[in-house]
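Section 4.2 – Deliverable D4.2 (structural model, holo form)

The reporting period included a commitment to supply a predicted holo structure for the target in complex with inosine 5'-triphosphate. Inputs used:
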Amino acid sequence: MRYDGRENDQLRPVNIIPGFLMHPAGSVLIQMGNTKVICTASVEEKTAAHLKGTGQGWVTAEYAMLPGSTATRKKRDSSRGKVDGRSTEIQRLIGRALRSVVDMEKMGELSLWIDCDVIQADGGTRTASITGAYVAMMLAFRRMKAMGMISEIPVRNAVAAVSVGIVDGQIRLDLPYEEDSRAEVDMNVVMTEAGELIEVQGTGEAHPFTRGQMDEMLALAEKGCMALYAVQRQALEAFEEEAPLEAEAPGSGEAKEKQEEESLTVVAATQNQHKLKEMRAIMEPFGMKVISQKEAGLENVDVEEDGKTFEENSYKKAREIMALSGRIAIADDSGLAVEALNGAPGVYSARFAGTDKDDDANNQKLLSLLEDEENRRAKFVSVVTMVYPDGRVLAARGECPGHLLRELRGDQGFGYDPMFVPEGFEETFGQLSSQVKNRISHRARALSRLEALLREEAGKER
Ligand code: ITT
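Output (structure tokens):
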């Protein structure tokens, strides 16, 4: 048992109060247990010196602790005459975390100054700063958009951070000072809502740790971050202002035309129109144009899926459509894996109740199979594969954990969406908007990883 009564995988109570201060463009007070940080985002109408003339903006951060934030008074930097090394390291981390989700080109030549001031420290101040700063930044961008300073919110994804560690031989989430100060292993994890890692800072303080323990800690951190994205979203929704919350599809006018010219065109190897729509919505912001099999003259080609894994089927679909069209093809093979059914229906999700892709019959079969089952845990899995005419293959997997209801709710999406509640949410994919689903779904995660692989490839070629 932890001294504050929490389970090992539980966060401290989190609260984000948006619009906490009057003057900055965006501000919040974030509280994680007894840790309290004020995060503000202020706009400056010029970019960083090294970006002058490039059309790009900059996001930078400063971090400090108030003298009264710690048990013994902390001297102010102004009276010490220099910024302490720890603060410098932390403010760089905060800046990097936020910049990794911002499109600097869409920002234009502006700077956003993020200030994180710890008013009470009880462990996890740097991670709370990042989680709060993201909300302050979004509020500032929203206000900038309402004022016409930017034409769209230049943020690709949500970012949050949390600490994990090994204390008393146990892997634990969100360490307060009492645990942090005696942790055997201590780790800070910064992640995007698409499940990508931005930074992992892990140290074996008392003894080395294994790769297996590291994987467990990362999985726990991901779970914690999922809950934090939900709190961030609630704070942003509670403070709905003039401008809409969702990051939008990119550009208009000239910028859009330019982007279309440069975009990579791929054929989506799918017969499922819902998937096609989701793939388009997710991939177009990455600068990729997705055309249907019909547009590629392959309307009636339905590739037989006889593989035993998502990977095999995904590759087979992409490979066949690439061979027939002579163009780059991308396929998604996906499904629902239910814990109580040892991962079924899995690769057989589309034809769970028979040979047809009958969503209603599939849902009814699953509802009745799980009628007396207490364990409702399940995850959606997607494996996306891109096959090039020159034989190159890129593949990525994405998973979205959650639980299954005992009834169907909502008519958005497709397949098992009306039964499935993603972790960190209270509504099913059938009820959540497509914008939300396309940010957090298994497909969004897989495609976002694929995009990272593409960027890596492009970097190697340069
Ligand atoms: P293609 O093979 O032509 O792409 P399909 O629907 O047959 O279309 P899969 O073989 O990959 O695709 O089967 C995926 C099934 O898994 C799908 O029919 C749903 O039943 C389920 N599924 C996958 N992603 C889903 C999502 O985002 N929401 C709900 N159900 C999903």
